Amino acid sequence: MVLMSPNPGELVMVAPRRAKPPRHLADLDLAGRREWLVELGHSAFRADQLSRHYFERLQHDPATMTDLPAMGRTQLVEQVLPPLLSPVQSLTCDDGATVKNVVRLFDGAMVESVLMRYPKRTTMCVSSQAGCGMNCPFCATGQAGLTRNMSTAEIVDQVVTGARMLASGQVAGGAGRVSNVVFMGMGEPLANYRSVLDAVRRITEPSPSGLGISARSVTVSTVGLVPAMERLTGEGIPVTLAVSLHAPDDELRNTLVPLNTRYSVDEVLAAAWAYADATGRRVSIEYALIRDINDQPWRAHLLGSMLKKRLVHVNVIPLNPTPGSVWTASSPEAERAFVAKLEEHGVAVTVRDTRGREIDGACGQLAAATDPEREQI
Ligand code: SAH
């Protein structure tokens, strides 16, 4: 934007104000919502009623909110529960047990979330940023760069959307609930600290404050942003912390996770152990196994010796294919040998399933590109 300066003839450049997502009930804690409702000319207790509609009944249709006065109800609901995520595409695989939702945010930014239904749990994998600034070369999200941070309500609404789909029986397997939330979609959650922490509070606090999902069933994953890990340690919220390690040595990790040049493997692991000590929670170490890159027996041995006797669990992730990447997953033999070596050190290991691969919905494949070839549901 160009404005006229008070000095005639001189032009001043003014940066355009970045528009923010519309404010939504889920951006605020219950006290903040009550204040907001009073500012809007309503009684504070309307905040509690609206919160129950949103978090408990998963409703956004004013017609169902018969405890609110009919006069002005639609306008009130439009004000405090504005639509944040416009559906673009919904793709399913695994006979309907995996659903990827591609949505557009108010400013056109696109994000994705993935619902994964298992026999005993249903996990929502949510995005915390549109794009990602961490630039890990094997991850599709990292290749497009960062568009922007998501707001608290934009993050929470992904979980509510999934919960609504489950409750209404739209997901194969009958009506159900979201039991787990993982911040493993697009973005680096700890680079959007405030919004993510508030989203964790909304997700874990019981109704009418939030969704009432146990903090132990919420996982926040990071590339190793050490100062933010330390801050998280001080919050006293017992979420599971996952660290995307991918290499036990700085030389290789500097290339796989570029942030490692700022915070080394030793520093990242020290912050992880401090988190485990403070919360009593077992830290997850994520290790995407890449053929001939990070899957050598000596690296398994080094990793095992660094993790042994720690409160830790290793998630080995067979590398998922991403466009433009020359890397591929390790052979089944190399994978088995890697896991066995870690187990020799007494380290707990599981190999993550490749849920969502067919719909580009697996780890590292979220690029918010829609696929015109596929049928929408
Ligand atoms: N930025 C955070 C949150 C994303 S979690 C983080 O990196 O931890 C997504 C997980 O999938 C991370 O562990 C990431 O390293 C891993 N991942 C990325 N690309 C992958 C790929 N192509 N195959 C398997 N895992 C991948």
Quick recap:
The chain has 377 residues and is of the alpha/beta class. It is built from eleven helices and 14 strands. The model is unreliable at 1-6 and 372-377 (pLDDT under 50).
CA(first)-CA(last) distance: 42 Å
CATH architecture of the largest domain: Alpha-Beta Barrel
How large is the count of helical segments? 11
How many structurally independent domains? 2
What is the CA-based Rg, rounded?
22 Å
Identify the strand order in the major beta sheet. Answer: 3-4-5-6-9-10-11-12-13-14
**Helical residue percent band:** 25-40%
Number of strands: 14
Say which molecules are bound, naming each kind only once. Answer: S-adenosyl-L-homocysteine
The helix-strand sequence is EEHHHEEEEEHEHEHEHEHHEHEHE
Summing up helix and strand content along with how strands pair, one would put the structural category as alpha/beta
* CATH homologous superfamily classification of the largest domain: Aldolase class I
Overview of this protein structure:
- There is one protein chain.
- The protein is of the alpha/beta class and 377 residues long.
- It has 2 domains: 25-65 and 74-80, no CATH class; 86-376, Aldolase class I (TIM Barrel).
- The chain contains 11 helices and 14 strands.
- A 10-stranded mixed sheet has the order 3-4-5-6-9-10-11-12-13-14, covered by helices on one side. Strands 1-2 form a two-stranded antiparallel sheet. Strands 7-8 form a two-stranded antiparallel ribbon.
- The chain starts with a strand and ends in a 26-residue tail after the last strand.
- The relative contact order is 0.11.
- The model is unreliable at 1-6 and 372-377 (pLDDT under 50).
- The structure holds S-adenosyl-L-homocysteine.
- The site of S-adenosyl-L-homocysteine has 18 residues, from strand 10 and strand 12.
